[in-house]
Amino acid sequence: MRRIIRLIFIVLILSGCASKTNIIVSSTAKPSEITKFGESKKIIKNGITVVYLSGSPYEIGFAHGKLCKEEILQAHEFHFWLYDNRNNIESMQGWMKTARDLEKYIPEEYIEEMKGIADGSGIGYDKILFINLLTTVARRKGCFAFAYKDQNSNIHVIRQIDIAIDQELWKKMILFVVKPQKGNIFAAFLNPGWVDGETGMNDKGLYISINAINMQQSKWEIMPITHLTRYILQYAGTMNDVDEILCRQKAFPGKLLFVANKERAAVFEIANDEKARIDMDSRFLALSNHARLLPSRKILKNSQERLKYADRYLMKNIGSMDIDMALQLVKSSRISSFWRNGAQNRQSFIFSPSTLDFFIALPPESDTDPACHNSYVKFNLLDEIRMFEK
Predict the structure, then answer these.
(1) How far is CA 292 from CA 86, 135, 270, in A?
(2) 175-184 confidence digits (pLDDT tens)
(3) Among residues 5, 80, 155, 307, which is most buried (max CB within 10 A)?
(4) For the segment 29-63, what is each residue's pLDDT rounded down to a tens digit?
């Protein structure tokens, strides 16, 4: 009987007829656990860990390390094993040299923050540097993102964090809400131990996420993608600000950046010495894992098919899109191909710039369960910022 019920459930998902997504309103629930360190604190809300950090770069890092030491060790157990055995693994020799070479392109405030994480957690600085450069040097994530306008012309962003099944990246990501001494207050959904803007939004309503581009890196005079997106979150308020920050770079890590605010959305294609921008010119904009404008673009068939499927769905439903319809798209096997192509959906995320509401899927219980099929916890960035006052 269970097999029959499971089969029916899968058929409904594939056909796009699954029941509406369960949304949990986080503001109505009392935190189940609170840990404090100075002005910073860690709270568990409906199964999502939220860490609030404020102060100087070093103070933010130190509190991060103190509050999240066990999570850092658990999340990066495999990566720290690689580091400890680097002298016995031939491929790691060049990896560590590249990591050390990239350090000089990291803004000093983020060096200080990583040193704070190291000191607060008791984990060596070189290990913290090592994990913060993973997505620049070694990791190839197959993420997907799109934005659409609802019937009131409000923009909503949907973000799928998909990775290869054989990659040891933690599923229980942490929501960090950061109030730095300089720049914007922002929230970023990350692995513990990272100084990053992988998936985040700031109090100006600007959203950014990192997506794989599948192009070979040939120039290494670059700010690592983790710190570049963190810098954008902290110091950009408009789409033009993002463009200006990117224009100041001598070269780029090979990635796709999905950026949105309440007026527009855009994809920035960056790799080596190339940069291009695709703006939302209709009621939606989607990306997969290939560039469409860069001269040296490399288009993978699976990525191209994924994007075409999403574009057809969004075009068909122009004028009637809502969050439920958006989630039906990401639940389809054509998008979150967790049982095909050796990929898995690690996390699913929604952001509405006009209201600063965002939704995070509860972490999957197993390595193969897709996060996008779980219930979503609702947050509001302004509500989370007010937590600094409590």
Answers:
(1) 37, 22, 11
(2) 999 999 999 9
(3) 155
(4) 677 778 889 889 999 988 899 999 999 999 999 99
- Comparing C-alpha atoms, which of 382, 361, 379 is closest to residue 43? 379
233 vs 298: CA distance, rounded Å = 28
| Among 91, 75, 81, 195, residue whose Cα is nearest residue 133 | 195
CB atoms within 10 A of CB 85: 10
As a whole number of Å, the CA-based R_g of the chain is: 20
From the list 230, 179, 183, the residue with the least C-alpha distance to 382 is 179
Which has the closest alpha carbon to 73: 195, 193, 203, 183? 193
DSSP letters, 121-168, are HT--HHHHHHHHTHHHHT-----EEEEEE-TT--EEEEEEEEEETT--
Low-confidence ranges of the chain (pLDDT < 50): 1-19, 338-340
- Calpha distance 173→336 (Å, rounded): 18
Strand order from edge to edge, sheet including 343-352: 23-25, 376-380, 357-361, 343-352, 155-164, 144-149, 284-287
Could you report how far apart the first and last alpha carbons of the chain are, in Å?
50
Question: What is the residue whose two structure tokens read 């690689």?
Answer: 82
Predicted TM-score (pTM) of this structure: 0.90
175 CB burial (10 A radius; 0-12, 13-18, 19+):
buried
Taken in order of first residue, the domains within the chain and their CATH numbers are: 2-29+135-389 (3.60.60.10), 33-134 (no CATH)
Helices (H), 147-300: 225-235, 239-247
> Which CB contacts under 8 angstroms, 24+ apart, belong to 92-97?
95/137, 95/138, 96/130
| Cα 171 from Cα 184, distance rounded (Å) | 27
